[in-house]
Write a structure and sequence with these properties.
The structure holds two protein chains of two kinds.
Chain A: H1 7-21, H2 51-59, H3 66-74, H4 78-82, H5 86-102, E1 106-109, E2 112-115, H6 116-131
Antiparallel strand pairs in A: 1-2
Chain B: E1 2-4, E2 12-21, H1 25-33, E3 41-44, H2 53-57, E4 61-64, H3 74-77, E5 93-94, H4 99-102, H5 117-130, E6 158-165, H6 171-181, E7 185-189, E8 192-198, E9 205-211, E10 217-227, H7 231-242, E11 264-273, H8 283-288, E12 295-301, H9 303-309, E13 314-320, H10 329-336, E14 355-363, E15 372-379, E16 385-390, H11 395-414, E17 419-422, E18 467-469, H12 484-502
Parallel strand pairs in B: 1-7, 2-3, 2-10, 3-7, 4-16, 10-18
Antiparallel strand pairs in B: 5-6, 6-12, 8-9, 9-10, 11-14, 11-17, 12-13, 13-14, 15-16
Classes of the chains: A mainly alpha, B alpha/beta.
The structure holds flavin-adenine dinucleotide.
Chain lengths: 132, 503
Amino acid sequence: MKTNIDRRTFVAKLNKASVALACLGMGVVSVSGVSPRSGGSLLREEKIDAVAGELYLEKFPEERSVELLVKKIWDKSLEDLETTSQEAIEDVLCNTIRRDFREEQVLSLAGWLVSRSEARFFAIQSILIKGI
Amino acid sequence: MIIDSREIEDGASFWTDVCVIGSGAAGLTFAKEILGTGREIFLMESGGHLTSPEADDLNVGTLEGEMFDYYQDYLLKERIRVYGGSTNIWEGVCLPLQEIDFEEREWMPNSAWPISKSDLDPYYARAANYLGIHGYDKSVSDDPSPIAPRMLPEETEWEGLAFHMSNQRRLGIQFEEELKNAENLKLHLHANAILFEGNENGSKIEAVEFATLEGRRFKVKANLFVLAAGGMENCRILLNSNADTDQNIGNQYDNLGRYFMDQFHTPGGRVVLPNPLDDHLSYDRALSESHGYIKMGALSLKQSAQRRHRISNQTLIFQETSKFKIDDERNRAVASSMPLFEKKSVRRRDTKTPFVYWFRLKSEVGATPDNRITLGEEKDALGVRRLHLCWKLSEDDRRMFARFTRMFGNALGEHFIGRLQEWYTENGKLSKHTKGHGHQLGGTRMHADPRKGVVDANCSVHGVTNFKILGGSVFPSGGNTNPTMTIMALAIRMADQFKKGVS
Ligand SMILES: Cc1cc2nc3c(=O)[nH]c(=O)nc-3n(C[C@H](O)[C@H](O)[C@H](O)COP(=O)(O)OP(=O)(O)OC[C@H]3O[C@@H](n4cnc5c(N)ncnc54)[C@H](O)[C@@H]3O)c2cc1C
């Protein structure tokens, strides 16, 4: 990741967003690989982190950049996101996903219908995991 | 009285007031309804009380179209030759057609009925009585079932449909005592209608010829003939009547056998949900607990949304997942990492497993003239040419099935209800689990204009004074609901018209 922001904080924030947004014990894509997955996964499959993100990046290799993906989801630079409140990060992500479905900005990952922003969010996590 | 037609003398001839051919839901209901008129009724049935391989063989024919790639048994499994007809094997799922199904919809080819839902409403209520459906009439207060199954919020374009489950499914058994004891009805078993004989100008049916598998033949003359031999046999008998003769009964404008439809029935996909489905949305549970008042829930697009999106009438029916395992590695991984988003609400459940259901698509298809029943070359044991059925999905049909699933997936996502995996896609090959529904529709379609249909709005064959047809074959379009209740409503309506004429 070519940025000077405090990656640990950033990762924690994304983790928090993903935990906050994932509901009811559905599998949570873990960024750090540590705790957020307390809810477990759909089939209790252990090595599933960010597979969805990888699938997305296979389809859109030109988006393999956290900076670009952050910009596309939150319309902010990484630095700006770093100073954005947790709540605002979650709000924007939620609303963008909602809008994606409404406007049919969707795609199919292994047949699952996901919002483009949601898939990008997976992709960020996938890149970060690899980078850690 | 019940008569075994195998014992009728070869070459015999009979006269009766009304000759009804076929003792399925349509023929039985009509015959029972007119018992009180005192008119003599012959109810002629090809089968007996039990199925037999010889009778089944009469249903053998040939199939054409991708739909049948995995379903070569369609002609044998989706109907039956026995007293009571297909109500011996049906599931008893009932619902009237919706208003939109009767309308002309530009995007559904040849879709208009010459009658509307309100014309049938009183008859639906009477059909519900026969079918043992409690609570059909909303004023009945003892209906314990909470209805309107809901998965998506009211303000969306989606609504729950509540199918009734009949608890009087075996209509043959239900009606038999009364029919047997009626002085003016003779139920002929093992009597196969093979030929309609018209008068010289084809304006009247003079007689119908029957054959038994033992090789005997006899004729029945009547004031009124009602053909109710099932969606496909209705066409075949008439086509056979016209083949190699100068007759053209019901076929002046080459509509006979055309516009065949069944409902498209395929596994459409899978959903992951944070909460279990309401019992009424689970097909398996509704079916196993059906006591006449349990309803089977399904989801559908509101009629206004269908009009807005110019899409066919379709249903999603949810089932437990066990039949389709999540076995593919990548597939499983994506499903596993699928977060369900719910704004500001981190409601974690103790259980680590979300709920996965697969769903079937039950979809209306367009009525097109090339989907048709014709006669094959080979003949059956009675010397009647076997049936050939061509049923192909159009590009528009496929596009609308895929669109419907996609719209549902979008709605689940937008409202943070769950996520959907699409199995049916527009370009994909049909699943090997794709089926027809045993809902054979079209072939003697209803239309006010004789150039566009075989029967008129009262199910009378155009241009023939004493000949009516009942069954799915008269449907100009199919809707997304099971047809039997409508078939029975049409039979009761026809009976009322007959009674009026008699009085
Ligand atoms: C497996 C299955 C499940 C179904 N489930 C449902 C459901 O849940 N809900 C629903 O609404 N519908 C369902 N259906 C469809 C339903 O069974 C039919 O719509 C309905 O029974 C049709 O009634 P019918 O009287 O028009 O035809 P049929 O029931 O086919 O009756 C026609 C009768 O005519 C007789 N016959 C045929 N040829 C001749 C001849 N040449 N001479 C004399 N008699 C003849 C046949 O033996 C038969 O008895 C199902 C069908 C199947 C096969």
